[in-house]
UniProtKB/TrEMBL annotation:
InterPro entries: MFS, MFS_dom, MFS_trans_sf, MFS_Transporter. This is MFS transporter. It comes from Victivallis vadensis. SUPFAM superfamilies: MFS general substrate transporter. PROSITE patterns: MFS (PS50850), PROKAR_LIPOPROTEIN (PS51257).
């Protein structure tokens, strides 16, 4: 029987951080059809590539911020760095809400990406450090489920507001305000028992040494590639499902948001259940099993006809269950398999997952412009099959290592 999970102040701060992070990440994709029409790159008239490029433009500053956030954590601590990052993310989405043209929207999304990169790089290490002696993989999976809670809330509320005629600008402004809540939780003084930060400051050469040690480890690159594919498969669905439903099924923004909510709801179930029930030593079983299920399920959405939207919603829910555990479980499993600083492992793996999100979201837009969004969805099972093979290979290596002992 799994041990009871115990949460404190910074756990709840991390939960709200993931919710706000999801809100800022998803509010632009949910509003993309209306936003594109307003700013002069309508998706139905060849603008899908420009739409996908927004995610690519967000990913580049995210990676830059993640490469820096290890130094920030060593100098100022993870908690303070996360608080400042949430403020920066809020400012970026606020600027996007008032952007008068595509170029300025692109720049505003890039500003938000700087804050999101720090959140992506440091939120998971904070949870790891809080529960380092108590099966951290369970807490990481559970905490990451609040990303999906944020996705569901964002797509449903934003879809409803757009359906009721509320401007996309007000929807983005709401996301800006929500992001300030976790900023206060991280930045306000706290003197309780939880201490997620090291007491001593780390010199930049120490942080660089941690990164160099990992880069020289061949096994680390296996997990790096798996994270790239995991990010790609997850965000192909998260970014494009709403637009796909609106364009290919001639549905409303509310139905587009509902489709994304089914996928995110499945991710909540996948992460929370695995957090409660799957022990640290079973993470590789979880990832490989979910990869097989996700590959098979991912083959069906492009084959459905326009009158089968509710079947699509069901498939998206089960795809969400299969997808949910990938990101946190691959990271936590890598910490077990690769010797090195755990904070730097989380940061560098996120430096693979985030570009995977951006690259495949952009690639889906390009493929969608050429052959249609329906056919571009085959990228999802391709990503899942690839990451499943990588983790299965490492599993075989682990078995051989144990047999030699």
């Amino acid at each position: 029987m799994a041990k009871k999970m115990v949460f404190g102040r910074y756990d709840y701060a991390a939960f709200s951080c993931f919710i706000a992070y999801a809100c800022c990440s998803l509010v632009v994709p949910v509003c993309l059809v209306q936003l594109a029409q307003s700013l002069g790159f309508p998706l139905g008239e060849g603008g899908k590539g420009a739409g996908g490029a927004l995610q690519l433009g967000r990913s580049i500053p995210m990676v830059a911020a993640m490469l820096f956030c290890g130094f920030a954590a060593g100098r100022w601590g993870k908690v303070r760095s996360l608080g400042v990052a949430m403020v920066l993310m809020s400012v970026g989405i606020g600027l996007a809400a008032i952007a008068p043209a595509y170029g300025l929207l692109f720049a505003a999304v890039a500003v938000a990406g700087l804050g999101e990169g720090v959140v992506e790089g440091l939120a998971t290490p904070v949870i790891q450090d809080l529960h380092i002696d108590d099966e951290p993989g369970r807490y990481i999976n559970f905490s990451h489920s609040f990303w999906s809670v944020g996705v569901v809330g964002t797509v449903m509320l934003a879809g409803l507001l757009l359906y009721c005629g509320v401007s996309w600008r007000f929807v983005l402004a709401g996301a800006c305000v929500i992001s300030l809540v976790p900023a206060f939780l991280f930045l306000l003084p706290y003197h309780g028992p939880q201490k997620p930060d090291r007491q001593e400051q780390l010199h930049w050469t120490t942080v660089s040494g941690h990164a160099l040690e990992l880069v020289k480890t061949p096994r680390f690159w296996l997990f790096f590639t798996a994270m790239f594919l995991a990010g790609g498969g997850e965000f192909c669905l998260t970014f494009w499902v709403s637009s796909f439903i609106q364009l290919d099924y001639s549905a409303s923004a509310l139905m587009g948001g509902l489709g994304t909510a089914f996928f995110a709801g499945g991710m909540i179930v996948g992460r929370m259940v695995s957090g409660f029930l799957v022990s640290q030593e079973k993470l590789r079983h979880l990832v490989v099993g979910c990869a097989v299920a996700g590959t098979l399920l991912g083959l069906f959405p492009p084959l459905l006809s326009a009158d089968m939207i509710w079947i699509l919603f069901g498939l998206l829910f089960f795809l969400g269950i299969a997808t949910g555990p990938f990101w946190p479980s691959i990271q936590s499993y890598c910490v077990d398999r690769v010797k090195g600083d755990s904070t730097m492992i989380f940061i560098l793996l996120s430096c693979a997952g985030v570009p995977g999100c951006g690259f495949f979201a952009w690639l889906m837009g390009v493929v969608g412009d050429r052959w249609g969004l329906r056919d571009s969805f085959f990228l999802v099972p391709a990503c899942y099959a690839g990451l499943g093979l990588l983790i299965a290979y490492d599993w075989c290596v682990l078995r051989r290592e144990r047999q030699r002992k």
